[in-house]
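Re: the pair you flagged

First of the two:
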Amino acid sequence: MRNIGESRIYVVSKLSTDNEQWVNPDFGTTELRTHYDNIKRMVKEKTGRAMQEKERERKGKNGKIIKVAGCSPIREGVLLIRADTTLADVHKFGEECKQRWGITPLQIFLHKDEGHWLSGQPEAEDRESFQIDGKWFKPNYHAHIVFDWMNHDTGKSCKLNDEDMTEMQSLASDILLMERGQSKTETGKEHLERNDFIIKKQKAELQRIEETQRHKKQQVTLAEQELKQVKSEIRTDKLKSAATDAATAIASGVGSLFGSGKLKDLEQTNENLRHEITKRDKGIDELKAKMQQMQEQHGKQIRNLQGIHNQELETKDKEISRLNTILEKAFNWFPLLKEMLRMERLCYAIGFTKDMINSLLTKKEAIRCNGRIYSEEHWRRFEIKNDIFKVEKNPTDDSKLILTINRQPIGEWFREQWEKLQEGLRKTEEPRKNRGFRL
């Protein structure tokens, strides 16, 4: 499991229907900022001290300055998953982490629509890549999981050491049936974040191409050096050949006198030497032409890859711009859309189910409820019995919506319940204060 950073990961909208998400209903809010603020208040109440959010320095016993990291009450990580991994599998992992180490899962998101496009056919051992619209796509199946890293009984953060984190990774591999990676204590290397790993892989591929190009340039340089050496040898051979021709002429004159039969053998040797030099010159020219052709072909491939990459980035930017334009139009055409979304977040925070929210917002029906509802303002739950909830227009502002309980705005109802609770606590404490000694 590792933290996530920024990268150029491609999202295929056709695969987005396979995505899943889960939000912990026990905490009453889907807004992490609100939950973070609630944790700050909880720490203050439990410990009597404000939560240390920033890194600070303190002096140790030996006089050296020690840096103390700030508190990170909410932490996010990424799990590598398979194509058939379900939300229940990841939720099981989160619950097991809660049982073992006390960290509580807040949100889980399964992403099965991200990955990157291959420049050509996948490798033979690649069993994950598949074709979309005629292009090969390698998916990057992963899950985001957000934890509450605090002990709400003590107001202190949960302490996990390196052994705990190693055990957590082994737990994830066992539950999600994934292959366990090597520990950095075994490899001696620092583990990369998910997107940094992909960027590094792309950089490695580019580096491999550049090294191939440098190797080919070295081959051309060696061929040119060999050509110079051969030309030098040819000049030497030509001088030798001229000397041999002169000697042959002399020998011819002498041979004509003595009738020597070695003259023809010498002429044949000279002819073979000239043929070998011509053959060598031709081979060098062919090698040089071939190296030039390979270099041009390699440059063309790099330009094609860069063009495809730029085109995909441009397509993604256009899609984002188009979606933003549609969202702006939707807000202009439907002024209450933002209010509907706000009401939806409020209902989830209170603790309503998806079906209950659908009845309130889509069907515009009133619902009758029993149980307990959560107040973000007072950070606690209040009992309800056969109370009627409904989403209505704000009587003072038609552009706003309010959630009512028994025709009373929910905010006012929460305040009344809170005042009743405080009044009850005060009545309970008064007899204790009046109690004294009797003789």
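Second of the two:
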Amino acid sequence: MPTPPPEQERPSTLQGDYNPAEYSAEYKLLYLQGLVADRAFEDITTFLDKQSEYEIASLLESFPTQNRLLIWEQVPDNIKGEVLAELEVDTRQPLMENISSKEISLFTQDLDAQDISEILDTVTDSVRTSVMATLDEDIRVQVNKLDTYADWEVGSYMDPDLIQVRDDITLAEVQEWLRDNDDLLDDESQELLVVDQSQQLLGLLSLVDLIKHDQTTLVSVLIDPAVTINDRFDITDAAAIFRSEDIRFAPVINSHGELVGQLNGEDIMEIIQDDVDSTMKNLAGVSQDEELFAPILTSAKSRSIWLGINLCTALLAAAVIGQFEAVLAKVVALAILMPVVASMGGIAGSQTLTVVIRGMAMGQIGGSNRLWLLNKELWVGAINGMIWAIIMAFIAQLWFHDIKISAVIGLAIAINMTAANVSGISIPLLLKRMNIDPALSASVILTTVTDIVGFMSFLGLASVLIL
């Protein structure tokens, strides 16, 4: 196995008989950066020809826009469709601006309905119409079906291409049908979907049962129950079902109980990843649409909104401090120690907030356990608050040799850390009840609460005990 290059060293070649699995993503990125810098177009084409569509998509998203266009031109035509389907919308759109409808039709020839629908979401209506006219009738129907769903609905993520059998045929007939259509099953298939004459889903037929039972047995005798998901269900709720039921796929039915598609594990993994990315960006006050290599002005604009909101909350905290100008003027030590109180509260609250928002995303918080968690965080905050209050009071005593200052900083930290933990769980719960995404605004509100409570308790206690 080749030795990875040092962190700042750009690999000049991929040694020996190239095996993509032997090289890390960072190694490949550094190597491709070298080829792009040298404008080695033939080498870029050769390199990309040995990568999967997932790897190429990841590499494209790791370059600024101008370099993406250069790399895209070297992507082999036979895989361009798969790569486009794997790209994020903001990355895909600029690449498709100069692609004709004829080229898109060629790229999508061998793609499934899900991938085609994904690609056509980023083209004009006229291009879409032209491409749709070139599709097979079955694929065109499936794409149109997917497009009837909202982005957040299960139906927009399901695979409409189904392998289904009727309940009134024998196992022998099923096997004969599968042998005549040997491309239907892949290596991961374990069950077949069973429907009746009116396309009502009845359940699943295990491939093990298909083989081991008498071949004259009717399918209806061996039907296993299936965990189903409604096509209008929220996709994040569907992901929670996959986790709780530990299933690999789920049949998708409409409101009439008719089978319309299936939701696969890989689709759910994509949803979970997108949800994680969205939560991380929201917690940091970054737009969900901002990508790593977005243009400078785009990133600046998306972040400025939350920076403005944060400035307003900071001014509110400053106004609270201004009410205690007299005590700060007389005791300089308070100005030195004041940031410690806000910082300890902020960290304690953020720890609780992160755990709570993750629990919400996993569907673990609801009903009576909310009160239990609130009580738990109250005690966690109180215990940690007391521990660090004593430690900080001891440090302040060694520093300033003033028992009153030590008492003020200790009590303020205990109060603020307790309040921070309680706020860390109560704020997201309240926002969820108001139908506001907790990940989007909870951190800003929490910062405001911990700053105000911290400054009020610290300076208020100083006014009482010192002045």
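The beta strands are 164-166, 191-195, 201-206, 229-230, 249-253, 259-264.

-B.
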